[in-house]
Design goal:
The protein has one domain. Helices cover about 10% and strands about 25% of the residues. It contains 1 helix and 4 strands; from the N terminus they run ββαββ. It has one helix at about 35-40; strands at about 20-25, 30, 50-55, 70-75. A hairpin with a 2-residue loop joins β1 (about 20-25) and β2 (about 30). The protein is globular. The relative contact order is 0.26.
């Protein structure tokens, strides 16, 4: 799933995500759609660390120096992050 944007002051904004990067898994579960991401977030609790995995597309300055490199990070959910069902 391609990353379009991450709000600066959001939990996702604290993870090394950039426009065009590819999110491949959350909590060791492959993600291919927004529905997959929502399902995982809804099964998570505020304060939980959600492991993310992905692949870089471009660096912040638009250069392809990290293109294709894998990345991983922990997304720490705050109270407003987990969508209600």
């Amino acid at each position: 799933m391609f990353v379009i944007n991450a709000r600066t002051n959001s939990p996702a904004g604290k993870v090394p995500l950039g426009t065009g990067d590819v999110l491949t898994a959350m909590k060791d579960t492959p993600v291919e759609s927004v529905a997959d991401v929502c399902d995982i977030l809804q099964s998570s609790a505020p304060g939980e660390k959600v492991p993310l995995e992905g692949v870089y597309s471009l660096t912040a300055d638009g250069k392809q120096t990290k293109f294709g490199e894998a990345w991983s990070a922990d997304l720490v959910l705050d109270k407003g992050t987990v969508p209600s069902p």
